[in-house]
Design brief:
Layout (H helix, E strand, L loop, with lengths): L3 H10 L2 H23 L10 E2 L1 E4 L12 E4 L8 H8 L7 E4 L12 E2 L5 H10 L6 E8 L2 H4 L15 E7 L4 E5 L4 E8 L2 E6 L38 E5 L4 E4 L4 E6 L4 E8 L3 H16 L4 H11 L5 H11 L9
Parallel strand pairs: 1-11, 2-3
Antiparallel strand pairs: 3-12, 4-5, 4-6, 6-7, 7-14, 8-13, 9-12, 9-14, 10-11, 10-13
């Protein structure tokens, strides 16, 4: 039994140093438990990697060109009312509807709804919350009224943004595994999103649909949790974006993004760090083709023109540019 005397001895035995160690151990246990709650278990033999975390005020957070999660960008999550006020009566043009699954692919195989205000979208979205009818504001260019209200991200100040897009859902929706030919930052204003990232070197094993296919740049792998070999041997960088956090997705990185249940509001910022170099290479390729230069020689010349790009991205772009199809994809 723990008598008052024994209890006093136990308290005395816990020195400040021991107490500090105990507190650290408790914090560690909570961190492990939290990670277990948000970590998505995959049936693979490799160990996935947690995303690196940087302060949102760090202007050089993207300098290494690797995925990072920026934090501290919001004081509190946005609500549907906040977004409604910011959008005012702006008609949303990019609303997709899927009646059978929550996976939204780039090809237009979903119903595109007529333009509606955000309040109208909210009404329809909440009415369908418990049905198999999924709605998604899918890459809506943000109007000036919203642009002036979203948080400023210091590391994007010097980026020549090509687009700033809005993504909204009221149910669990998913953008399946794919890669983009741009850099991107995804800012979460409300709700949570789980992400999986794979480097450009994984593209060759990701069963990407060929160039010219309507699912170009998308993977044929439907289940990221139990992928086929050899892709299952590639570890993912994974984690969860909380409100007030932003995920940096570097150029050419494969990614799958899944919204949690409930309201999810995200803003994506995109830019092309290699636009001038790639455009010059594409123009040169047209000349090489016009001169009937052999494909092997075309590949070698293009690789030399793209030497300033990281090797995996260089190989990815050479493969795309030297396909037998048009190079007018830029």
């Amino acid at each position: 039994a723990v008598t008052p005397v024994n209890r006093l001895c136990i308290v005395k035995a816990v020195t400040p140093v021991n107490r500090f160690c105990i507190v650290k151990a408790v914090i560690f246990c909570f961190q492990v438990l939290y990670r277990e709650m948000i970590w998505s278990k995959r049936n693979v033999d490799v160990v996935d990697i947690p995303i690196a975390i940087r302060d949102g005020d760090d202007t050089r957070a993207l300098d290494l060109g690797i995925p990072v999660l920026l934090t501290g960008l919001l004081t509190q999550p946005w609500t549907a009312s906040d977004l409604s006020f910011a959008l005012s009566d702006h008609p949303l043009q990019h609303i997709l509807q899927s009646r059978d699954q929550n996976r939204f692919k780039f090809a237009v195989d979903h119903d595109k709804l007529a333009p509606m205000t955000f309040d109208e979208f909210t009404h329809v979205g909440t009415q369908n919350h418990n049905s198999q009818n999924y709605l998604y504001v899918y890459g809506e260019p943000i109007p000036p009224s919203l642009c002036s209200r979203i948080p400023r991200i210091p590391c994007l100040i010097d980026k020549a943004l090509t687009s700033t897009l809005l993504w909204v859902a009221f149910s669990s929706v998913c953008s399946p595994l794919h890669y983009d030919l741009v850099d991107g930052v995804l800012l979460q204003l409300s709700g949570r999103k789980r992400f999986f990232l794979f480097p450009p070197s994984a593209v060759q094993d990701a069963q990407i649909h060929p160039k010219g296919n309507r699912f170009d740049r998308q993977s044929a792998i439907e289940d990221i949790h139990c992928p086929p070999s050899p892709f299952r041997d590639i570890p993912a960088i994974q984690g969860v974006i909380e409100p007030g956090q932003a995920l940096y997705i570097p150029y050419g990185w494969l990614h799958q993004i899944e919204a949690d249940c409930g309201l999810s509001i995200s803003i994506s910022y995109r830019w092309n760090s290699y636009e001038a170099t790639i455009r010059g290479a594409a123009l040169s390729l047209r000349g090489l083709r016009a001169s009937s230069v052999p494909v092997d020689a075309q590949r070698k010349i293009l690789a030399e023109m793209l030497t300033e790009l990281p090797l995996p991205i260089r190989e990815l772009l050479v493969d795309r540019l030297c396909s037998n199809l048009s190079v007018d994809w830029l």
